[in-house]
Design a protein that fits this description.
The protein is mainly α. The protein is built from twelve helices and no strands. It has helices spanning 43-70, 74-80, 90-107, 117-128, 133-143, 145-148, 154-160, 162-172, 176-209, 217-240, 244-266, 270-301. Helix 3 packs parallel to helix 10 (217-240), helix 9 packs antiparallel against helix 10 (217-240) and helix 9 packs antiparallel against helix 12 (270-301). The longest helix is centred in the middle third of the chain and has 34 residues, at 176-209. It is globular and about 70 Å long.
């Protein structure tokens, strides 16, 4: 075999980058950034790469978490000032804390929804004891009104969306336990996506509330990711702790955090910030409630 036809050894310095074929001179390719002097992989190389990456990530993670928790708005300002390499990326931070939060909810005793139809019926039967026959008949009639009466839009749903009506009927025939399971499954399956889709809307609300401030939409989205990541941490801790005093402190910090962060990032007077915060909370809670309701309905529609 002609030696000239053999490929260059990994440790040789090539004239061209082995990754993108660009002309190189030095230890790194100016085009793609890959090292030019390569060598056969070894265990020590992988170990060094893993430890270096883990330690670097750990330092960035704790620096991001501490600033996120105890210095409202600072992490957003640091990112906008260009100090980005020392912190975890906003989207990555949000997604990581979101996954942890919903995992904590699922494996805790938190119940997304609970039907107690049987208990309510038992309570009603107990309440009927001691009444006269006529009073019992009237009470039973009142209790059954809800099961006999159809909603005003029921006929239109059956006419224009028979598949939806069929799913509603199928869900209505389920036992209370199965209804609870179906809605809970929908919550845990779709709520993380629903909450994430609220972030662009949260940023839009900020854009409207701070119209004329010169802030771009991406800056509002950055603030939305950071503040909602903070909320995941606090709500997760609230789920785990049972001490009333600790829960009260966390709840107060949760309420005061957002207006403090808004004032640090956007500026403005306390009164103006409070008004904007009130509007933002109202809009966001309405949107979030609708999104979670849709997520649970999606679970209910798949129940059988």
């Amino acid at each position: 075999m002609n030696p000239a036809a053999q490929p260059a050894l990994p440790h040789d310095a090539p004239a061209e980058c082995r990754n993108c074929n660009a002309q190189v001179s030095g230890h790194y390719c100016h085009n793609c950034g890959q090292e030019t002097r390569l060598h056969a992989p070894s265990f020590s190389e992988f170990a060094h790469e893993f430890i270096g990456h883990y330690v670097a990530l750990e330092g960035r993670l704790w620096g991001s978490i501490t600033r996120l928790l105890f210095r409202p708005g600072l992490l957003t300002n640091e990112y906008l000032r260009g100090r980005r390499k020392r912190y975890v990326e906003p989207l990555r931070l949000y997604l990581s804390l979101s996954i942890i939060f919903f995992a904590v909810l699922k494996f805790s005793s938190f119940a997304a929804v609970n039907f107690n139809d049987e208990d309510e019926k038992k309570d009603s039967i107990v309440a009927l004891q001691g009444l006269s026959d006529d009073e019992v008949k009237r009470s039973k009639s009142n209790l059954n009104i809800g099961t006999r009466a159809a909603s005003p839009g029921d006929g239109k749903i059956r006419e224009y969306a028979p598949s939806i009506a069929e799913r509603i009927d199928r869900f209505d025939k389920l036992s209370s336990e199965k209804k609870t399971d179906a809605l809970s499954d929908g919550f845990y399956k779709y709520a993380p996506y629903a909450v994430f889709l609220m972030m662009p809307l949260f940023a839009f609300y900020l854009k409207v509330l701070y119209i004329g401030s010169g802030r771009r939409y991406g800056e509002h989205l950055l603030f939305a990711l950071h503040t909602n990541a903070f909320a995941f941490i606090v709500f997760g801790i609230l789920t785990l702790v049972s001490q009333d005093f600790v829960r009260l402190v966390l709840f107060c910090w949760l309420i005061g955090y957002l207006p403090w962060a808004m004032r640090r990032v956007y500026g403005g007077s306390r009164r103006a910030t409070l008004l904007r915060w009130s509007g933002l909370m109202l809009l966001h809670l309405i949107s979030l409630s609708i999104a979670i309701m849709v997520a649970m309905m999606a679970g209910a529609s798949a129940a059988h």
